[in-house]
Amino acid sequence: MAKNSVVTAKIFSFLILFLLGLTNLGCAANTAQPTPAPTPVDYNKAMELDPKNPAAYNNRGLAYYKAGKFDLAIADYTKALELDPKNATAYYSRARAYYDKGNLDSAIVDYGKAIDLEPKDADAFYSRARAYYDKGNYDLAIADYTKALDLDAKNVNAYYSRGLAYYRRGEFDRAIADYTKALELDPKNARVHNDRGAAYHDIGNIDRAIADFDKAIELDPKFALAHSNHGAALYKTGKLDQAIAAFDKAIALDPKSADAYSGRGVAYRDQSQFDKALADFDKAIGIDPKYANAFLGRAITYQRTGRNAPAVSDFQMYLKLAPNAPDRNQVQQLINQLK
Predict the structure, then answer these.
(1) CA–CA separation, 42 vs 38, rounded Å?
(2) How many CB atoms are closer than 10 A to CB 287?
(3) Tens of pLDDT along 175-196?
(4) Is 88 within the bounds of a domain?
(5) For the domain that residue 104 is a member of, what is the CATH number?
(6) Which terminal residue of the chain, N or C, has fewer Cβ atoms less than 10 Å from its own Cβ?
(7) Which domain does 111 fall in, by range?
(8) Would residue 93 count as lying in a domain?
(9) Contact by Cβ (8 Å): 127, 108
(10) How many domains is the chain partitioned into structurally?
């Protein structure tokens, strides 16, 4: 960020604390009290002394931001920029407030202005990439994550996040490469192990997927998603009892996991435990009424038990929720046969 602005902000913060009697100079270590964080009210008092100091507005904006008062933070950052239009820190901070409000377009604009002023700010590229990712613009997200990594080659989060973007684009090998790089830098990151496992699963490398899910669970035994993914991978190997046990664990940790209920329903169905399967699909749909695969799973279960009318209804709902499903023609044929 803009170094002069940061230094000014730090000095001004110290002056505020000094004026308010909140500094603790020369106190013995065993008697020193923690310095309380300045509040917006504290900055109000100090700003009366210098109402045209952009650092004051920037710092009060930060206090509002930390308090979750994003609109007030944005107003202060805007005032700071009126006083100092080349304040990269204020642009970055306002962008962050816009992002947390869900105003991604405004966040992207402000991150761009911060980058124009500080083109070697890896954090700004990384943060703008997150906004692009959340908008579903994976190409621009990848470009910004790449720039962030050019500036900071040890940024674990940038490797991981770029991997997520590659995964979303269906470029699983590239995703795996980025997840692997992230794990070289942070080998005990359970989430990255889980997501690399998902990528291995999607390219059909089930053994490596299981190894990654096992590692994720070892690192974080309460990681519900890893247990659910573990169950899905075990299902692929035909180990239905083990898969059900993994889904059981996922559900115990996260009773609102539609994926785990749906996955367990598929395993129960393949064991011909149809009532249990239907109960799990019902539960998954209750949690997420737009979960296409749960409707598909329930439809197949109805079909196998000779209940054609509800099967047709669920197949139709599946196609409505997933109009571009690769098995669309096959499902439509089944609907025609069952009617």
Answers:
(1) 6
(2) 17
(3) 999 999 999 999 999 999 999 9
(4) yes
(5) 1.25.40.10
(6) C
(7) 1-119
(8) yes
(9) no
(10) 1
